[in-house]
From TrEMBL:
One of its GO terms (biological process) is nitrate assimilation. Keywords: Nitrate assimilation. It holds the Pfam family Nitrate_red_del. The keyword Iron does not apply. The keyword Isomerase does not apply. GO terms for molecular function: metallochaperone activity; unfolded protein binding. It comes from the Bacteria. This is Molecular chaperone TorD family protein.
């Protein structure tokens, strides 16, 4: 599904820990990916410590909103380092290859949303959980899921 590479790269950055580099990129993210403006605007006006604490609360305080695709126990296997290598990419080793920002960056670099589509059910569950939690991070998942075909109903 070509054409969403910039959105996927921007979404990957939005789902990483909000450090100083992230804050410096907010104006570019806002302009490059209009679908993420609501989140970028929120992040821009939220004090850095508060934004970082919220990230930890949402993504690191438990498995409820895990950014690791393997946590969603789907039929599709979690992406492996071999998948990245097959496309001429290497993982950094800082995060496993099933880390959603890494998968989004993979989609951005390869132009293929296949891994995202394979994990659509898990992405929908994550999106729903983030929406129920009331976090602005839900808008990032909304934008990503809007680019993917609908999930197939369970058989």
């Amino acid at each position: 599904m070509p054409g969403f590479e910039v959105l996927y790269q921007a979404a990957a950055l939005c789902l990483m820990y909000p450090d100083d580099d992230f804050r410096a990129r907010l104006p570019l993210l806002r302009e490059a990916a209009p679908q993420l403006r609501e989140f970028a605007d929120h992040a821009a006006v939220t004090p850095p410590r508060e934004l970082a604490a919220h990230y930890v609360e949402v993504f690191e305080a438990g498995q409820e909103h895990s950014l690791y695709l393997s946590a969603w126990r789907e039929a599709a296997p979690a992406p492996s380092e071999e998948v990245y290598r097959a496309h001429g990419l290497e993982t950094t080793g800082e995060e496993p290859p099933d880390f959603l920002p890494a998968v989004l960056e993979f989609a951005a670099r390869t132009g293929s949303s296949e891994l995202l589509t394979e994990h659509r059910d898990g992405l929908d569950r994550l999106r729903s959980g983030l929406t129920d939690f009331g976090t602005p991070y839900a808008t990032v998942l909304d934008a990503v899921c809007a680019t993917l075909p609908p999930a197939h109903p369970a058989s």
